[in-house]
Amino acid sequence: MLDGPSVVAGLKESGVTHVIWIPDSELGTWEPALNSDSQLRLVRVCREGEAIAIAAGLLLGGQRPVVAIQCTGLFEAGDTLRNVVHDMKLPLFMIVGLRGYYAHQQKKTNDTCPIFAEPILKAWQIPYTIFDRRHTASDLRQAYRQAQAENRPGIICLAE
Amino acid sequence: MMTLREALEVLAAHRGQRIVITTMSPIAPWHELSDTPLDFAYIPSAMGQAPALGLGLALARPENGVIVVNGDGCMLMNLGSLVTMANYPANFYLLIIDNGHYEVTGGQPTAGAGHTDFAGLARAAGIRRVYSFDNVESWRAGAAEALSGAGPVVIWLEVEPKKGQKTPMPPRPMAEQIARLKQALGT
Q1: Average pLDDT, whole number, for chain B?
Q2: For residue B10, what are the domain limits?
Q3: What is the mean pLDDT of residues A52-64?
Q4: Domain region containing A16
């Protein structure tokens, strides 16, 4: 299971320099660990497309950012995602909270987020992996390193 | 008022060795004025995201400094970026080229044409260094001060609209632009 301290440790071991984010209720529990670390810079933005564009600038400048947002913000950020991944071809790495994933599997929610998140990621042609409660910071580290090694984008979808 | 060309000529005289990111209508005239590896024509772009791209680059490369030449239509699409800029001081300068129109789509007015106070918006977002120029003489006189010192800086330039503008074309493919920028930065 991922929590703030283990995520921070995994990101630092992977050489990540910045986390650009708008938290949701799950990601938000990582805030104390992210905000108190002296090596990782936490960048708070106003909208999710903005987070992706800032990450693109950091990548051009030789840094190693990760974007962390909720799937609702992913929906908003489509134009920027398209541009950064497919026009600029930058190896953007993101952690995206999948709101309502478990409740949807159990047919206990009318939330439409889990219906559209995966089809949208497939439409954007971005490799993604769904992380459930069994995944650990080691899996996160491996996913990030593999995407970087292949110089391609990657998304961790955090089941919520 | 001043023409876009006049506004950019003043910028060219003061940009120094900083990275210059252009969007939309300024792309073609800026390319005629400067075509170094540190000139980045953000096209194809994500609408409204040039300030965010520039801020990210400025945070990554404080020793270089970044100037973004943005339009008023692009700025209206991402007003929140002013708040983020204020929260992360960087060697970063944002020019808002305000002609009140979407030039490249045929000259339709923007939602803010004629009444949006971009300087006021920037100040309200928390940016302390904000400049406004509505004629080329005052821009020439104030550019040295506005384009130096600690960022973030927002510079609001009111320019004449020019109808009949074509959709901007990139001076070279995006991959080539990125490669030469990264080579120049050593990244």
Answers
A1: 96
A2: 4-185
A3: 98
A4: 4-159
pLDDT digits (tens, 9 = 90+) for B71-99: 999 999 999 999 999 999 999 999 999 99
Partners of residue B38 in chain A, C-beta under 8 Å: none
Of A61, A83, A87, the CB nearest to B57: A61
Q: How many structural domains does chain A have?
A: 1
Neighbours of B176 (CB within 10 A): 11
Touching check for A132 and chain B: CB below 8 Å?
A: no
Beta sheet of A154-159, edge-to-edge order: A41-44, A18-21, A65-70, A93-98, A154-159, A128-131
Looking up tokens 């320019």 gives: B159
How far apart are the CA of A120 and the nearest CA of chain B, in angstroms? 18
Q: What is the DSSP string of B47-64?
A: TT-HHHHHHHHHHH-TTT
User: Could you tell me the CATH number of the domain that includes residue A98?
Assistant: 3.40.50.970
CATH code, B122: 3.40.50.970
Q: Check: pTM over 0.90? Answer yes or no.
A: yes
B128-170 pLDDT, tens digit per residue, is 999 999 999 999 999 999 999 999 999 999 999 988 778 889 9
Domains of chain B: total: 1
- The ipTM is 0.97
CB contact under 8 A, B84 and A49: no
Show the tokens assigned to A103.
């409740």
